[in-house]
Structure formats: C-alpha cells, structure tokens
Design brief:
With about 160 residues, the chain is an alpha+beta fold. Helix content is about 35%, strand content about 20%. The protein has a single domain, classed as Arc Repressor Mutant, subunit A (Orthogonal Bundle). The longest helix is centred in the first third of the chain and has 13 residues. It binds zinc ion (ZN).
C-alpha cells in the first residue's frame, strides 16, 4: 500500500472542520494536556485542572472572563486572577492556544497548528484543519528562501443563505 500522507487530490487543499482532519490525533483531550503539563514540570493545581477541563469541554475560543464566568456558573470556586494566571502560564508553555484579537485575548484548547474561520456576523471563531497543496508550499519556499514548517490561515466570512 502506498505510504503517503499527502492529499490524494493533488492541487486541491484538504479542509475539515473542528479538528476532524490530519491533526486530530494530537489532541486526545484534557488528559493529554495534564500529561503535557507534567512533562513540562508544571504543577497541576485544582484551579489549573478546572481551567483545562473547561477548555476541553467547551472546545471554543474563550476570553479569561468567559472562562471565569462559566466556571463560576458551574459552582466552581475560582477567582478571576487565578483563571487569568493559569491561562497565561498554560499558553506561554504551549499547552493551550492563544489568539490576540482587538477585543482581547482568546484561549483555545488546541496547541497544534491549525487555521481559523471567523464569522463576520457573530464574531464566532471555529477551528479548521486546512492542508495547502504541496505545490503551493513549494512555491512559497522558492519565493522566500525559507523551509515552511507550519502555517495558520485566518479566514473570515458569513453563513451562506440557505446553507
Ligand atoms: Zn483555534
């Protein structure tokens, strides 16, 4: 059987929504994040586990305030400063994702390279796995003299009528 991970339809980009694509095996859930913290020598305090569990169950891009409010709505006793400090520690260690938006920082559960689609009507952001055609990456490498190791696309649009 041919050993290839390239998209079968040469010349077209492979796209799958919400982490169902080639990168999906690399985020097995909050347990994977716990493991990653331990490997990095980070303490897994009760508050830190709360923040990780919420991000993995919501699977959305949330602000520190969103996360604080959701945890407190669940009856979790955690302060805003603790939420913020844990998010910053986790994102600087590369355990979680951080998006800098004009409205502030948003945190997400995935740390592997992936792309985003922003709805211009609601502002909602969804994760996308977009695989560029190898020919396009080769052209970019020729143009820049760089070896491309990863990429993230930022797309925006609105829901199609009737879609
Ligand atoms: Zn994301």
């Amino acid at each position: 059987m041919p050993a290839t991970h390239l998209p079968s339809a040469a010349g077209s980009a492979a796209v799958s929504p919400n982490g169902g694509g080639p990168g999906s095996a690399s985020h097995p859930g909050a347990d994977g994040a716990y493991l990653r913290c331990r490997e990095l020598g980070m303490r897994l305090s009760r508050q830190r586990r709360m923040v990780l569990d919420l991000l993995w169950s919501e699977k959305a891009h949330l602000s520190a305030r969103d996360i604080f409010e959701k945890l407190n709505a669940q009856g979790r006793n955690i302060g805003h400063t603790s939420v913020y400090q844990n998010l910053e520690a986790l994102q600087s260690a590369g355990v979680i994702e951080c998006l800098d938006r004009a409205s502030g920082r948003l945190y997400g559960y995935r740390s592997d390279p992936h792309s985003h689609l922003t709805c211009v009507e609601s502002g909602a952001i969804q994760d996308l796995d977009v695989e560029l055609p190898p020919g396009l990456i080769a052209r970019i490498e020729d143009l820049t003299g760089f070896t491309i190791e990863s990429y993230t696309l930022h797309l925006s649009g609105r829901p199609r009528a009737g879609g």
